Amino acid sequence: MIIYLDNSATSWPKPASVIQAMNQFNDLTGSNPGRSGHHLSIEAGRILFNTREILAKLFGVSDPLNIAFTSSITHSLNIVLQGFLKTGDHVITTSIEHNSVMRPLRELETRGVELTVIDCDSSGIFDPQKIPKNIKPNTKLIVATHASNVTGTILPIAGIGKIASEYGITFCVDSAQTAGILNIDVEESHIDILCFTGHKGLFGPMGTGGLYIKNSLEKRISPLMYGGTGSRSEFEIQPDFMPDKYESGTLNTIGIAGLYAGVTFINNTGLEKIQLKENMLLNRLIDGISDNKAVMLYGPLHVKDRVGVLSLNINGLSSSDTSFYLDDNYGILTRPGLHCAPSAHKTIGTFPYGTARLSFGYFNTIEDVDAAIKAINEISINRGIR
Questions:
Q1: What are phi and psi of 148, to 5 degrees?
Q2: How far apart (Å, rounded) are the C-alpha atoms in residues 128 and 330?
Q3: The last residue of a domain, from among 238, 268, 298
Q4: Counted domains in the chain
Q5: What is the CATH number of the domain that holds 257?
Q6: Spatial separation of the C-alpha atoms in residues 149 and 156, rounded to whole Å
Q7: CA distances from 352 to 39, 89, 323 (A)
Q8: Same structural domain for residues 202 and 314?
Q9: Residues 318-333: tens digit of each pLDDT
Q10: In this structure, are 180 and 321 located in the same domain?
Q11: Angle at 129 between CA 126 and CA 135, to 5 degrees
C-alpha cells in the first residue's frame, strides 16, 4: 500500500478526467494549434483558448489573452526575471523563496542587478511593512512566493501588492503552492505578474505552466525564446503582443488539454472545499504528533496561516533517514532535504540538514493522516528517542 504525501512536489493521483482529456486529445485531435488551417488544428487552438479562459476566470484576469503558456513555473519565472530586470535595476524578494526565484536572481546579480532579500521570521511569516524602508529609486520589481514549499506559510500577497502599487513597483507572485488551493485575484491583490504551474494544485500534468502579465507590461519583458508562433509569419521579428511573444515553438497541447480538465475539476469541487479538506488533514496531523517531544515541527502554529505542508525532524535522525523509514517500513512517501529552497531552511534554522516534508492533496484521507501519525510516533520510539 502507498500513501502519497508529496503533493508539494506534484499532485498525485490526478482526477480521472485529466487522463481522459489527454487521451481524447491524442485519439481525436492530435494536431498542432495555429500551424494549419484544417479543422483539427482549429480544434487544438480552441483547446488552448478554452484553457486560457478557464484560468483567467480562476485568477480574476479580465482578458484570457493576457495568459501565456510555458513548460513550468520555473520557465515562467525566468521569463519575468531575466526578461524584465536589467543592469542597474533593484529587486526585492523574501528569505523564504524557492530556487526558481533565487537562482535567477543570484545569476542576475552577477550582471549588475541589485538584490535585497528581506528576512521572514523563524516560522516563515513575512511582514510587508519591512518593504518600504528597503525601496530605492531604482527598485523595479518585488517578487514573492504566495506560500512556502518548506513551511507552508502563506505570505500576505494582498498587503505586498498594495505597497508595490503605492510605490509604482511591479509585483510578481510565485503561486506554485497555492494556485488551485487558495483564492487568487490579480486585481484585488495588485498582482502585475502571476506565475503558475499546472502539475500541482491545478491537477494538470507535468510540463504545463504559464504566466499572467498585466496589460502593456509585456512591452517591457523580453522573451527567453524566439521562433515560430503561428502568427505574423510574414515577419522575421518576434511578435510583441500577448500571448504569442512568449509561446515560440509547439505548445504542450495534450498537457494543456489535461490542465483544462484539472481546473474544471477544481471549479466543480470548489476552492473552499479543497482548502478546508487540506486544512483538516494538516490540523489532524499536527494534533497527532505535537505532543511527541522527539518531533520538531516547523512553520506557523495555526493552519489558517499555511497550506497543507508540514516540515518536521525527529531527534537523532536525519531528514533522509526519517523519509526512508516512512517509505520502507510504512509505504508513506515524503520528501527529505532542502526542497530546492536553501534560503527558506536558513530562515527556519534547518540548513544544511533540511527537514522531512509531508504535503497533502485533495485526494488524501483521514486514514492517510492517521497512518502517518502512527508511523512518526513509532519511528521515534523504535529509535529510542521519544
A1: -75, 140
A2: 41
A3: 268
A4: 2
A5: 3.40.640.10
A6: 15
A7: 55, 31, 16
A8: no
A9: 999 999 999 999 999 9
A10: no
A11: 105
For residue 386, the model assigns a pLDDT of 46
Beta carbons of 299 and 123 less than 8 angstroms apart:
yes
Residues of the chain with pLDDT under 70: 383-386
Do residues 61 and 75 both lie within one domain? Answer: yes
CA distances (Å), origin 369, targets 3, 151, 280, 287, 359: 9, 18, 10, 11, 11
175 and 153 in a single domain? The answer is yes
pLDDT digits (tens, 9 = 90+) for 19-76: 999 999 999 999 999 888 899 999 999 999 999 999 999 999 999 999 999 999 999 9
Nearest to 372 by CA among 326, 329, 335: 326
Q: Is the pTM of this model over 0.70?
A: yes
Going by DSSP bridges, is the β-strand pair 67-70/3-4 parallel, antiparallel, or unpaired?
Answer: unpaired
- State the Cα angle at 138 between 134 and 141, rounded to 5°: 70
Would you call 189 helix, strand, or coil by DSSP? coil
For residues 158 and 189, the answer to whether their CB atoms sit within 8 Å is yes
